[in-house]
Amino acid sequence: MPTETTPSTAPRPLKLAAAVVAAEGLVVAVLGIAEVLTIDRDRLTLGVTTAAFLLVYGVALVLVARGLYRTSTWSRGPAVFAQLIQLCMAWSFWGGATSAVSVVLALAAVGVLAGLFQKVSMDALADDPTKDNPVL
Q1: Which of its termini does the chain have fewer beta carbons within 10 Å around, N or C?
Q2: Tens of pLDDT along 77-86?
Q3: What integer pLDDT is reported at residue 3 of this predicted model?
């Protein structure tokens, strides 16, 4: 059964931002799966809620990345919000043994924000009701 595919009209900075957001989503989802595998009976409620949050957040990031790749206007806000939260997380990890994690989080967030705020990306994500298809 052949399917029709159309190439993305997203500019290169937006495609790169979408790729990084998708990678972030996959990493968060893997952390959620790891949390499920390490749930202890003594902290069952905490483990289940943490795993559920990480899995939902990871899937949401992947859907936002898909929206960015498809140049859907709705995806810009959640992508920016997620990167701002990630910058706050990077700040909280700074110092000691977690400084490397902090640097990776900050570089990824700044890279995505830079890609989102490029003029070509802003133009591609401009609010145009005729081209926005919020189909997930």
Answers
A1: N
A2: 999 999 999 9
A3: 46
DSSP string, the chain: -----------HHHHHHHHHHHHHHHHHHHHHHHHHHT--GGGHHHHHHHHHHHHHHHHHHHHHHHHHHTT-GGGHHHHHHHHHHHHHHHHHH-SGGGHHHHHHHHHHHHHHHHHHTSHHHHHHTS--TTT-----
The C-alpha atoms of residue 51 and residue 56 are separated, in whole angstroms, by 9
Residue count of the chain, please give it: 136
Token pair for 126? 């401009």
Q: Which of 3, 21, 7 lies closest to 116, judged by CA?
A: 21
Provide mean pLDDT across the span 102-110.
95
- Residue 71 burial (C-beta neighbours within 10 Å; 0-12, 13-18, 19+): buried
pLDDT digits (tens, 9 = 90+) for 2-16: 444 455 688 999 999
